[in-house]
Amino acid sequence: MKRDNNKYIIYLLFFQFILINLLNGQSIEVKDVSDPSFLTYNKYPIDSNKNTCNFDFFIRSVISNGTGGLFTISSDSSLSITSLKVFNDQITQIDKILVSDVPNGQNSISLTSNLGLINASTIINFNCELYDMNSIKIKYIPNILADLDPTAYSGYVILSGLKYKSNNLIISTNGYSVLVNSDSNKATYIILRPLNITIFNQDVTCSIYFIDYQFNFTVPSSYLYYSSNSDNQVMYYPDSPMFQKFSYFASNVISITANYTGINPLIFLYRASGGILTLPFYQNDNGTVYFGALQNFGTNERIAVVSQYGSSLVEINSTILSSIPISSETYFPSGTIYILKTTLGTFNNMTYFTVYFNSSIYFDIIDYSFSIDNIQSVLPWPFGFESGTNYKYSFKVAFLLSLMSSSWNTFVITPYNGMTSLNPLNLPPDLVSLNDATPTMKHYEMIILDSNCYLIRIAPSDDFVNGIITINNKPYGYGSLVEGDGINGPSMYEFVYENTNSGVGTIEIRGSSGKSSPYYTSQPSYYSSIPPKFVYDATAFNIYNIYLIQNVSFLYNNLNTTNKSIDNIMYFNFTDVTETNVELEVVFLNNFKLLNGRISKQCFAKWNSTIKLFQVEFRVPANVKTGYFNYNIKLGSIYTNFYSQLLPASNQLYVTSSRFDQYGPIFKTIDKSISQNPNQIKWSVTIQDEINGFDYGHVIVRGDMDGSRYTINLSNNTIISGNEFLGQHDIIVTIPDICATQSYSIIEIELFDKQGYSCEFYMTKSFDAPSNPFINYFGDPTINKITIYCDDYQDQTPPVLLSFQSSRVVSSQDNSQTLLFEFQVTDPESGLKSDQLPIVYATSKQLEGIFNTSEIKTIVNNNTIDYKCQIDLPYGFGYQSDILFSVYGLINNGGYFGGYSSERLMSISPNSYYMSNIPLIKKLLISKVSIITSSGGKLLIIGKHFQTDYKVHIKYLDGNLVFPQVSTPTISYSTSIIINDIKPTTNPFIIKVVSLNNLNQSNEFTVYPVVYNFIDPSPKPPIKPRIPCAGTPECGGSKNGYCKENYGCICYSPWVGIDCTSQVIIVPQPSTNTSNPSTEIPVIGGGGGNNNNETNTETILFKSLISLVSLRELDFQSNIVNTYTFEKWVYNQIDSNTNQYVTNITIPKSNTTTTITATLQWFKEKSIIKFANQQLVMNPSSIKYTIDISNYDFSSKLNQLQLIMSASISASKSDDICSSKEFGVTSDSDDDISNYIKLQVDTVSLYGRFIKRAIVDSTVQTISNILLDSSMNLITNAASSQTYIGIQLPYYSDSIIIDPDFSILIDSKSASNNNNSICSNINSKSGLSTVQLVGIIIGSVGFAAVIIISIAFCIHKNRTDAKFRLFVRNKTIHMDKKK
């Protein structure tokens, strides 16, 4: 009976428990939350030769009304099921369900979620389907550029007729690797790549295995065969195989010059372990030069140079490498690292820790990174260097101890170049934790901004206080806070995430105690009971099958890039895409860039809704290698890449060039020297870049002992002699009078040519060995060093910091916060090295750091200097934290450096070594913008604290002083704004973000568009309409010349001129002007009168004057920058017919001198000369001006020069005479190479020819000539005619030469016959031109004008003479002919 009672009690308790649960209303909701796409539930087998599938599902369990816990998942299915917990917050749990070895056919499982006695179930249906062998088809697409990189891939195989994604094909090949990629459009792509360079020309035997079937097929080798002769030139750098240490990442280099200059053959270096590809870098007269790096070769190892010869490989050179000692030393500190922990007690009881060590191993230029549990910070040299020299020094840094868990944390110091770390150091826990909670994520958004930029919005749980959010271990703190104060209540954080190649990856919400919640964006993102919002669909690009690209074309093709870059447009689309807003990144890679791992500037393809195609604007650099110009289309930076080599030839951009240069500038010669008074060391280097030309660069020199650094910038403005193709530059470092004996070393070089190719050298960073500017000096490892010997003086103590003050100011204009510092430093022994400025650092929690270089405020005396420094405080930096200050980089003349960590500053300035209570002040800020072209359109603006109702004000630099355009953003978040209405412009423009009430305005930000100029690089000759030749009759009649269609008048000797009505006058050589290069040519002639029907035997003296007026510098908008008048010339007679004049002008900007040399040559007889590759006929009695201008220091590379010349002709009589003026293009040749000016008085003319070519830096270039009469003070009347010609000279480096000439003509017709003539008569001095007179006559309407003139003639007949009556009659007849 007792046993029955116990059983009754148990039943009663169980019933009460069930009843309580029912009364509480608890229940479980379980739901399948897998990716709802079709392919989640329908799959092929896990391997193509198997008949079972694997599936992954995600289910969510949620408990309602009560306390939850850990759910358990169960199933009664006979299938193999594994459950993995992904997320649990006691209320909600996410489980990943792995279903393995599912047989083919329709299947289902029932999953039950259990929590105590409560449970709920859901059913998932899915299908495992075998391959249908009857529907599968195979097609091979070769890589048409495979010969350029045999180790890349030979092509790809398309398997079509598939129903689902199929990345699990079992494939075998003969020596080729296989990459399988499948898309949502039921096609699978097999990328084939040779495992070894030596099998590049073998056909690929390929097999794909299925359950009961095997596909066997052979893929022919796709490599193109181009023969190479066996007499290639092989050179080693250095010329001996022995190699001494030059830098830590240098290596020997081999060059091979292939004498074939088209699409070059394959050349590689062969060793026992395989082949190493060499790359074509540039082309010279002997052929194309290949380079290869001799890395990781052992002692006495044989190396062979192997070249492609037809379809075979031929050994063309071999050698035994005696020794290739590639340096692997790591010059890092040794000894014990000690830790000091001290409580500040000033703000939230936060703690800092100090790490220090001493080292007697030489420090060699490497910055250190600091990390605590995957949170990393890099603060550059001299951070941490407290005292000593680079040979023996003390290192000490201090950081705030925050975000520490209750367990020990690992602190690591690592040389920031991937080399060996210092021993990790365990930090004790921070026992003062602000919050012991484990924060989670409440909300997640990912918004696409453009093809390479995403906006991430995260709302952490409310217990996320003083924490950080990490994305792929990069920490983000309060600087990313956009909503809330981060302390009380909800908050939102925003991040603009750029240039990601692998997606967002792992996101971690880490609290102040160190506890964290990780999230993996590659998994379903159901992080709470409310799924996060996805504005950006991660599958947006899946609508494009990247292998189904079509309609690829280019605005221009078959381009000749010899010495010129060409702007172009590419068009393409994908199958079934008719409209889209998605942008695609397109990277254009020429052959060398692709192989060498360097990438040219990225561009973005945008949808053109008019033509229904994507289009992308880009620039083809000058002098690229002949062949196909590669491009790579990226479907979002985290998605598939597609290389143009896999497209047919019809989809390729083909370029040619007679010159090939993708190699940066190098040092051809180097001379080292030391000078005194002042003490200077100098490398005099000759920079060589013979095709593209040197553009700019820099060199960094470091003192090997004291670490002092000097940056020397180089450009074409620093050329001592020569030009951009081969020019001398000086690298100079000034040494103080009191100094320490030490070497100064070049530790970094970057040199760029005018197409953007570079050569670099770094002492401790990796770089491309062939692209080393020192390549000609590999045999001299000391070429980058100069040792200066002082008076055996070395200061053994560091400089001393006497005072240090810090403060914070907030701008009333834009809310910006600035840290201000003032400090005094002294060194009583040797004095301070005044050209080495200390650096002030500020650090906060999570190893955050900012810094800036100080400047000299006052030099107190020879040993003491007052410094000042300011650091702009980023938004959120130091909020809810302290800021620690430190100062390093105090260097004295005796070779000793010093620095002060935060701990050491405490003893000098107890109130200024840190700062607390930093407020969170919002500042409206534009920090950067996206790339925009001169076509205008969309602009992405990135910054801080935008609001949805803010506008963007735009000011185009076209003379406006205001912002005329106000744009409404189409997308607006706190950190990013997009506008779509930027106008097309080739000029920079200014933007600012403004609130509706105009009270809140951002900084003004200047945007520089990428300017494209789409000009057909090979325009077809235009079909010119039939234009009558000049003259009445044409060309002076059949005896004077004839008219050549679309060319002009061809004159018979002795006739010349545009209408063959002028003859050259043979005159005596004019007298020489020894003061200036002006020429006066007197001519005695008879007056022709105002018409040709009346003779005038009066003798008239005509004077022609030619002179050089001035030189002007103009900006790109033709505004005058500088004007130089020619005041004093130095005269020199070359021979009886040639005189030379020289003058100098001083450029005020640089106080440099430019020399102008004018050579005047008189031609007594007809001669043929050559100038600028053109043959020119010099008429007898003509004078030629050859003007040579030396190097000029332009204010800008966009500027040009304008040389002004004056020409005039005048007559000794002023009545009954006419003058006229003509300016145009000569018809001397089809090229229209000359402008002409013709100044005529009566029947005598001064004729000037201005060649439209100049010799610019030894190269022939086209120039232009313009008439300046409208802006000059002319003296023009009936008896004289004057003009001013501006010869437009482009930017140049070394010199420019021009060559105008002048002669005197006698015309068969008077100037009165020209429409623009100005005439006078005996009684009237009105000076009305013929055109004006005719206009007056025509204004009297028809024949009535004749009557009026006749009446006027009758009234005044007693007051006029016969000559005037004849003039009126002729004018009347002329008017009738025009009717």
| Strand tally | 99
Which band does the percent of strand residues land in?
A: over 45%
Helix/strand/pairing class, anyone? mainly beta
Q: Terminal Cα separation, in Å?
A: 143 Å
Low-confidence stretches: 146-151, 325-336, 340-348, 404-408, 523-543, 591-600, 1089-1095, 1322-1379
Number of helical regions = 7
Question: What does the overall shape look like?
Answer: globular
Protein name: EGF-like domain-containing protein
Keywords: Membrane, Signal, Transmembrane, Transmembrane helix
Description:
The protein folds into eight domains: 26-128, Immunoglobulins (Immunoglobulin-like); 137-219, Immunoglobulin-like (Sandwich); 226-321, Immunoglobulin-like (Sandwich); 453-532; 544-647, Immunoglobulin-like, CATH 2.60.40; 666-788, Immunoglobulin-like; 925-1007, Immunoglobulins (Immunoglobulin-like, Sandwich); 1027-1086 and 1100-1342, no CATH class. The protein is 6% helix and 46% strand. The strands form 21 sheets. Strands 78, 79, 83, 84, 85, 88, 90, 91, 92, 93, 94, 97, 98 and 99 form a 14-stranded antiparallel β-sheet that branches. Strand 22 (301-309) and strand 23 form a beta hairpin. The termini are far apart.
